[in-house]
Design brief:
Layout: E1 4-13, E2 16-26, E3 30-35, H1 42-49, E4 57-62, H2 73-76, E5 77-80, H3 92-101, H4 107-116, H5 132-144, E6 150-154, H6 162-177, E7 181-185, H7 189-195, E8 198-203, E9 206-212, H8 213-220, E10 224-228, H9 232-241, E11 245-248, E12 254-257, H10 261-271, E13 277-281, H11 285-293
Parallel strand pairs: 3-7, 3-8, 5-6, 6-7
Antiparallel strand pairs: 1-2, 1-4, 8-9, 10-12, 10-13, 11-12
Length: 311
């Protein structure tokens, strides 16, 4: 089993501790979302795992071995940390061929990945002419070049158009279904919710959560029910009688907080309140994430003390 194991990682830059006694494990067969506010230590941790920087203390292994000891690392670990890393004067194909040549990978694999990532038509253009989204695709192609068991991507959706976002989502799911170990750093909550099975969340270099995504959401976002009726007076009376906190909205629907749809449905039925709409309001990853990390952001905007007055 090829897992990523981080044990008691600490990284200090002078007096600043970027990673603080961090331990977690990334298992194969699922996509693990790597989340945290700016400055939380996500990119630093990925660099440490890949041996691009040395930890102050602690260790990381991939399949039980440190990255630096892997014989042919591109065949075992594929990574994209910086989409701007490719040399601008090379063509996309030459960039991948250079990587392939140094890792005993045939040119046919280069052409396969140019097709798979949608870059075949621009493969002979110089990288400096590529958009950010095209560079992301090229970086992902490079990460997959050795058909690795472990894939680590830092903000892979950055710069992608809607078609590209759907493509990367489906790619990550397929790689996980093949039994690979996938770690994806992202600041896009809605996008992470579309592909991640498990979450590792950092705040100021410390581990805040290591849990399945659905459990993470359900533990932090209370259930709510959306209901609409032709008799709001009766609805309000029934809810108040049973101690439910409800909020009426301008379009006429109500939100019942801290309630489940089955319970509210039974109350309305027994009281004879006409129901035009009844639905559970699912909690989102964004709500749960903000609830957990509200005090952990290194950079945060605050409302101005003096707000402009309306005319």
């Amino acid at each position: 089993m090829t897992s990523i194991d981080v044990q008691d990682f600490t990284k200090e830059y002078g007096t600043r501790r970027a990673v603080d006694h961090l331990s977690f494990r990334v298992l194969p067969g699922r996509v693990t979302g790597f989340l945290g506010p700016n400055g939380a230590g996500k990119s630093t941790t990925m660099r440490l795992v890949l041996g691009l920087d040395r930890p102050t203390s602690g260790s990381a292994t991939i399949g039980g071995r440190a990255y630096a000891t892997l014989h042919e690392p591109l065949h075992q670990v594929g990574a994209l940390l910086d989409a701007q890393a490719a040399h601008g004067s090379r063509t996309g194909r030459d960039h991948l061929r250079t990587l392939a040549a140094g890792n005993r990978i045939p040119d046919r694999r280069v052409d396969e990945l140019l097709e798979e990532t949608g870059l075949a038509s621009v493969a002979r253009r110089r990288v400096r002419t590529y958009s950010l989204g095209m560079r992301q695709r090229l970086g992902i192609a490079g990460a997959l070049l050795g058909d690795p068991e472990v894939v680590m991507l830092d903000e892979p959706s950055n710069g992608l158009d809607p078609e590209g976002i759907i493509w990367i989502r489906e790619l990550l799911r397929r790689l996980a279904a093949e039994g690979r170990t996938i770690l994806v750093s992202s600041h896009l909550m809605n996008e992470t919710a579309s592909f991640a099975d498990h979450l590792v969340v950092l705040g100021r270099g410390r581990l805040l959560a290591d849990t399945p995504m659905r459990e993470f959401i359900h533990a932090r976002v209370r259930p709510r029910v959306r209901i609409r009726t032709s008799d709001p007076t009766a609805l309000k009376a029934v809810l108040a009688r049973h101690g439910h906190d409800a909020e009426q909205h301008e379009d006429g629907h109500w939100t019942v907080h801290h309630a489940r749809v089955d319970d509210i449905g039974r109350l309305m039925s027994s009281a004879g309140v006409p129901v035009l709409e009844l639905a559970a309001v699912e909690g989102t990853l964004e709500q749960a994430y903000l609830d957990l990390t509200a005090s952990e952001a290194e950079f945060a905007a605050h409302p101005s003390a003096t707000q402009p007055q309306e005319a």
